[in-house]
Amino acid sequence: MEKQNIVIGGxxxxxxxxxxxxxxxxxISGDFLARFYRLKGNNVLYVxxxxxxxxxxxxRAKKEGVNPREIxxxxxEEFTDMFKKLNFSYDLYTKTDTDYHKEKVKTLFRKLYDNGxxxxxxxxxxxxxxxxxxxxxxxxxxxxxxxGEETKGDQCDACLHxxxxxxxxxxxxxxxxxxxxEKDNKNLYIALSKFQKEIEEHTKKVKGKWRINAQNETExxxxxxxxxxxxxxxxxxxxxxxxxxxxxxxxxxxxEAVMGYITDTxxxxxxxxxxxxxxxxxxxxNRIFMCHGKDNIVFHSIILNCLLLxxxxxxxxxxMIVSAxxxxxxxxxxxxxxxxxxTALEALDIYESDSLRYHLISKGxxxxxxxxxxxxxxxxxxxxxxNKFGNLVNRTLRFKGLEEVPQGEMNxxxxxxxxxxxxxxxxxxxxxxxREAVDRIMNLVETGNKFxxxxxxxxxxxxxxxxxxxxIYTCTNIIANLSNLFEPVMPEACGKIRKYLNINTxxxxxxxxEKGLKLENIEPLFTRIEKK
Length: 532
Known about the structure:
Blueprint: E1 5-10, H1 21-39, E2 43-50, H2 55-64, H3 68-85, E3 92-95, H4 99-114, E4 118-128, E5 133-134, E6 140-143, E7 150-152, H5 165-168, E8 172-173, E9 181-190, H6 196-205, H7 212-224, E10 229-230, E11 232-233, E12 250-251, H8 253-258, H9 260-272, H10 277-280, E13 286-293, H11 297-310, E14 320-324, E15 327-329, H12 344-350, H13 353-362, E16 370-372, H14 374-397, H15 412-430, H16 434-455, H17 457-463, H18 465-485, H19 491-500
Parallel strand pairs: 1-2, 1-13, 2-3, 13-14, 15-16
Antiparallel strand pairs: 4-5, 4-9, 6-7, 6-8, 9-10, 11-12
Helix pairs in contact: 2-3, 4-9, 6-7, 7-11, 13-14, 14-16, 14-18, 15-16, 15-18, 16-18, 17-18, 18-19
């Protein structure tokens, strides 16, 4: 089968506060897919970065009395460290505050302007007389006209409604609390309405491939009719506008951040002497995945695709929207101010990264909001990861007196079970059914343990050495193939297994271990979490 050129984009987290486990639950699907498609032998570019511009960073900097670059730089370093500890396999994790990104984004922006998709518009905008400035959406507090909850003006956390310019006029300044007034302001707008038909056609084309929440949310916006949106903001921190007369404004963060998938790929292709068009243009056997939480759906399903269409350069549109629902903590929303939940780094200081990855994928918010509790997580680790997977590895490779892989024969039934697992798991992953995929792999672990118990190698070693050799050899091959199957989920443990069994690289193919291979320095893969 011909190799595919695959771009996998993970949403760009705001560099204004620590990432919690809920954020990771929305992002880990990107690493899961990147590792899977590499195992399949495809050309994969997995990209993302820290979103360093926009109102959230300037708000945080103002509170702390520092420069926005200090805030974004601090959290970018924290994010980089956290993703490394979680074994996210980004080909490039960068940030929007780089000269490369800024210059490439300005070129893409200018192309949209020259093609007639960005235009100037003067209209009334929310203005705070006390603060003497125009207010951006995140600087406005209002009652959501859709659900009645109090929210910031960028997006309602409760129902995901994005307030219109008209609705923002009923708001209050977050900084001083004063009711806003209207005042004429000049901005550049992108004509999303011009892409209505093309986005509708594309959304119909991919129906059944995206996560259902992405499909529903996108269709809701299309039914309402795409509205033109401002692409300039009254900020002094961000990417410059490459249009005369807009020197005092900056680019709206949502437009330049989603363009980061393109600029990241450009940079990687330059560094690796690869062809950028192979990944982003039509006719190059390519696929594009976007992985994020449900609050980011329209930015990837509609806006990114509009930006691509507006280049008029035969760009390939997003194939797969992998949008997670929300992860709660003890049935409550994560909240740093209220002390609800754990940051990812706090969790990594206590628990093994593989266990966190396994739990967030196998018990994650794939189709509905799910709940994270310490008790559930510890039960997953001790009950599934340690007692099932770890136990199979431990009692096979560390069997008392075993010094090498036996000269046994592979059990035909178990071989078929392994091959079936590869095929079935692959189908589930292609359908974005990650929880079921992990369950199917764990089913192979359970089958391996049942086979081991049924064959009773501790008795066969005394009474029938060939049966013993066949049993241990078969179980060793089950473990070897589990190191492939579990690679997208628990890469650290799988790497250890491959080292023990002299497997050079993981792949998505059935394999058998070399007979007579010395088994040395085999350590338990996992340790029990003692409940407190």
